[in-house]
Every structure is written in C-alpha cells, then in structure tokens.
User: Fold G-protein coupled receptors family 1 profile domain-containing protein from Oreochromis niloticus.
Amino acid sequence: RWDSIRQTSYSSFDLSFSNFSSNDLADLESMLLWTLHEPSTIALTVMYSLSFILGFVGNLMSLRVLTSRRSRQLAGVSATRSLLVNLAVCDLAVVCVCMPITLGSQIYTAWVYGDLLCRAVPFTQAVSVSASVLTLTVISVNRYYSVRSPLRARTMFTRRRILATVAVVWTVSSMMCAPIAVMNRRREISFETFTILVCQEEWPQHRLKQGYNVLLFVMLYCLPVTFNLTIGFLTGRRLWGGKKSTFSDLDPRSQALHTSRLKMRQKIAKMVVCLVLLFAVSWLPLYLADLWIDCEQRPSSWLLQTRPFAQWLGLTNSSLNPICYCFIGDLYRSAKVIRTRYYQKVASLFNSASFSSSVTVAPPAAGITDSKVSSAERRPIAAAVAASASMVTIPRLLNLARLAVTKQRLLCEYNINVI
Assistant:
C-alpha cells in the first residue's frame, strides 16, 4: 500500500514538501495515517469490538467449563475435551493478540508497536490458525475411531498421548509459520520531511512469497478441510446409517444407556462438522484475497479495501468457535443440569425432612395428652420438641445434600465422558 502511495506521489506529479508549512505537513501526515473518519474504518471498529467481546468472554467461559474438574479427576477427561481446551487456547491467543493490534493498525496505519510485535503478531495469527485446523483434524480422527472401534480408541487416545499430540501440533505449526516471523520487518518510508514506519513482509524474490502463500493455502486449508469433511462424512454414515437393532437383545436399562451414548456421539459429530465448515467459510476469503493480491503487480483499490473485512472474518472464527463446541456440544447445558438437579434434590430433601420431623414429634405429643397437661402448656413443649428434632435433622440433611451433589456430579461426568 505504501509503495503505491510513494510511486504515485513521485511519478505522477512533482511534489515538493519545501513549500509546505509545519501545520500543512502535520495535516498531511494526519490525513495519510489516521483513517478513523473513513466509513470502512468505523465499520471495522464496531465489528472488531463485538468480535473481541464475544471471543474473549466465550473462550474464557469455555475454558472454565472444560477444565472445571479437580486435578484428581483429570484422568477421566476424554480426549475430545482435552483437544477442545487446546482449540480454545488457540482462539484466545488470536482474540487477545491479533484482534486489538490489527484494528489499531487499521485506525492508525503507521506501525508504532515495535519490531518485536511486527514479527510476533503475524506469526501468532498464522500459528494459531495452523494449530486450530490441525487440532480439528485430530478431533475428527478421534471421533471416527471412537465410533468405529471404541476400545481401540481408548488405548490410542490416552491422556499422555493427547498431550504429546498437542505438543506435536504446536511444533509443526511453529515450523511451518517460522518464515513469517523472519520475513516480517519494520520499514521506514521517507517523505522528505517526515518518515512513516510500516510493517510488511520483505522476501528476496516475489516468487518465493507467492510459492509460500500457495503452500500455506494447500497445507493449512485445502488438505485439512477436505480430510476433515471426508472423515466427518464417514463418521456420520456409521452413526446414522448403522443397524438400529444392534442392542435389541439387551435389557431396557442397557438399551437406554446405549441410546444415550449414540445421541451424544451424534451431537459431537455434528459439532466437529460445524467447526470445520465454520473454519472453511471464515478463512477462505482471506486466503483468496492474498493469493489474488500476490498475482497482480498493481492490485485494484476495491481488492485492497476488501481485504481488511476478509481478515476480520477470518479472525472472527475464533470468536464463533465457542458457540459450536459449548452449546452444540452440551457442555454448558450439562453445567446447567448439575445446578438444576442440585436445587431440586435439596428442595426434595427439605420436604422429606419436614415430613419426618412431624412424624417424630407425634409420640411426645401423645405422652403429653396422657399426662393430662393443659392445651396452653402443650404448645411450648411441642415447639421445643420440634426444634430439637429439627436440630437433629439438619446435620443429616447436610450429609444427604453432600451425597446428592456428589452423585449428580458423578452422573454428569459419566454422561460427558461417554463422548
């Protein structure tokens, strides 16, 4: 962008800054750098703000739900949930690092964030996108084997192997995106009396840049999306096209258990396909825009003005992912189920406790009648007996409430670990 501005200013007409006053130069600099008055920048500011709030809150809530259990219970965490934690970390990195600085560089086009962030921000965006799509690939493979051979999937996707897989995903992503951190540099563009700092990629040859962008498009978009959609189709065919009479010989309780497992696996399969489709739709415009700009020596103005919106759409993918793997995946719903069942259990315990207290108070009242105590004297004695009975019942009630909460938590964890 700045190269085209410079060529236009020097080749189209002879611009001499010596005739300008200091105020004129300040106005010219402000006109070149500040774009907040432009309608496109105002629209991007609103869009980035909404995406940032949605992504920050959504990913934090997702991490809280996905990692809510204590360390002693981490052995039972399923492979899918562990991989979703890694996906949420990738999305949170994009939201917290890439979105604010991308919007800031759009509002004030000069790069004022230093050489380190000039290399780190594009690198973080590329690594996060790569780690996200590779994590989706591992999730797709995990779900396929969980449906095809559940016993083999449990031995293959243990907690230790999942952690090793996550480490490999981040290592491969960093190696593939390392040239972005090397080639991005902060550069000065001089306009006689003032200079403008910009951050851009500087490759030895333009063909190397074109080849690298094509490589990223194939390795991080075409192949993973095609593979994930294919394996998602195979998983769905086994889930929805299987024999429905497989468990007909079992007892009703076992049939209900297998039916609930099948429904949960179907929901997770839908979630994975939604994540892959959302990734494909969000990042395709930016990939195509970058490839188009690399193929043209002088890109058209509408293409350069459209690219920031394509980049916003790609970054917003990190804000929309929590909606898929938390609401479609039933994780937030299971948290609500725990709370609702807890309140219902405590309320039923209180009702049963009040009933038992009335039954316990009845024999002493009969003894008082036999001893010919007046009705005026019975009331305080009965109240005292009821109070003592309630004092005995409260500790038992608290113990029952603790047992009920533990039971409901185990049941909910069992239902989640089925996936």
About this structure: The chain has a mean pLDDT of 74. The chain has two domains: 2-329, 339-417.
